[in-house]
């Protein structure tokens, strides 16, 4: 018996697969490689190349590998870009999730851990977001993730599906030198690429209602995130009580300006970031409580901001070395 990890060749997904392996749990990767990298998948891990929009492919994978559960990470994950590509975002994240759930039902696969997002909250009017905070997504991406949660809840009522959704925002760092964040839209790779190219990193938006004018977010280490996914899967396997949603939050916020300072310190490259206009779909502040996840999923911040920067920088430098 094994778990299928959709998007398992991506930055986050590959860490989740490694975390499963560390716990002695078999994992199967399904990825269309639109943003994932085959090199992130260990040669010992079965790999299925294809899309979650392909129901027949999913059913074949379930049967061939004796899949008992799914960690669903595949999707289009860029909030800013989703504003200009809403239909693509909905196809990948909503139609894709519905197709996956239908294939699971036909194959008798009855448990799923869903990678959701703090983007479902939009710009909350509270200092600390909890799972009960009203949801007001401000981008097609955030909307699509909230619809994904609804799909799981409705399918649970109809079929008894066991599920949980993990909400988080900025994932950084690296748990192993051979996996790095290669996204062209995420903050750390944008900053690192600029530094490696001899360019000055850029901050988008310095007039937000925050202490230094830059966006404030939860930044969590990818290895901590991966570990929480595995604990959630194990609870579902054991039939233990589990909440429908959890925030994987730090309980504290870090601004983009503070990130820039930490990067300068961690890389040893002094720079003063350029300042640019805001990007569409970026709320001013999202900081979430992780208390519920700490209770049930052994969630905690095991890595400092300095750890996040140093591990991410080491992995990115390794990737740049011939």
UniProtKB/TrEMBL annotation:
Q: Which keywords label this protein?
A: Carbohydrate metabolism, Isomerase, NAD
Database matches in Gene3D superfamilies: NAD(P)-binding Rossmann-like Domain, UDP-galactose 4-epimerase, domain 1
Catalytic reactions on record: UDP-alpha-D-glucose = UDP-alpha-D-galactose
- The record's EC number reads 5.1.3.2
Pathway stated in the Swiss-Prot or TrEMBL entry: Carbohydrate metabolism; galactose metabolism
InterPro entries with a match to the protein in the record? Epimerase_deHydtase, NAD(P)-bd_dom_sf, UDP_G4E
| GO molecular function annotation | UDP-glucose 4-epimerase activity
Say yes or no: keyword Transferase present: no
Q: What cofactor requirement does the entry state?
A: NAD(+)
SUPFAM superfamilies reported for this sequence: NAD(P)-binding Rossmann-fold domains
- Source organism, top-level taxon: Bacteria
Q: Does the keyword Chloroplast apply?
A: no
Tell me, which GO biological process terms does this entry list? galactose catabolic process via UDP-galactose, Leloir pathway
Q: Which stretches make up the NAD-dependent epimerase/dehydratase domain?
A: 3-249
- Tell me which Pfam families the record gives: Epimerase
Similarity comment: Belongs to the NAD(P)-dependent epimerase/dehydratase family.
The entry's protein name is UDP-glucose 4-epimerase
């Amino acid at each position: 018996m094994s778990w299928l990890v959709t998007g398992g060749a991506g930055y986050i997904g590959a860490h989740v697969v490694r975390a499963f392996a560390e716990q002695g749990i078999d994992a199967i990767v399904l990825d269309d490689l639109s943003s994932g990298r085959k090199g992130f998948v260990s040669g010992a891990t079965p790999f299925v190349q294809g899309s979650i929009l392909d129901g027949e492919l999913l059913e074949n994978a379930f049967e061939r590998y004796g899949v008992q559960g799914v960690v669903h990470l595949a999707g289009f994950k860029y909030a800013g870009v989703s504003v200009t590509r809403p239909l693509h975002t909905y196809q990948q994240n909503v139609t894709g999730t519905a197709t996956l759930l239908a294939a699971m039902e036909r194959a008798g696969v009855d448990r799923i851990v869903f990678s959701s997002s703090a983007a479902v909250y939009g710009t909350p009017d509270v200092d600390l977001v909890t799972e009960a905070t009203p949801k007001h997504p401000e981008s097609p991406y955030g909307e699509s993730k909230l619809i994904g949660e609804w799909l799981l809840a409705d399918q649970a009522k109809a079929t008894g599906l066991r599920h949980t959704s993990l909400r988080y925002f900025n994932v950084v760092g690296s748990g192993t030198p051979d996996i790095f964040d290669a996204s062209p839209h995420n903050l750390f790779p944008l900053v690192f690429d600029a530094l490696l190219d001899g360019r000055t990193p850029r901050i988008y938006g310095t007039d937000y209602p925050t202490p230094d004018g830059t966006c404030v977010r939860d930044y969590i280490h990818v290895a901590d995130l991966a570990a929480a996914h595995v604990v959630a899967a194990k609870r579902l396997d054991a039939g233990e009580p589990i909440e429908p949603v959890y925030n994987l939050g730090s309980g504290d916020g870090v601004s983009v300006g503070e990130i820039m300072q930490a990067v300068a310190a961690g890389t040893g490259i002094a720079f003063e970031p350029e300042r640019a206009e805001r990007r569409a779909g970026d709320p001013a502040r999202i900081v979430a409580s992780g208390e519920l996840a700490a209770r049930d999923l052994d969630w905690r911040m095991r890595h400092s901001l300095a750890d996040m920067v140093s591990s991410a920088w080491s992995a990115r430098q390794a990737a740049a070395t011939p």
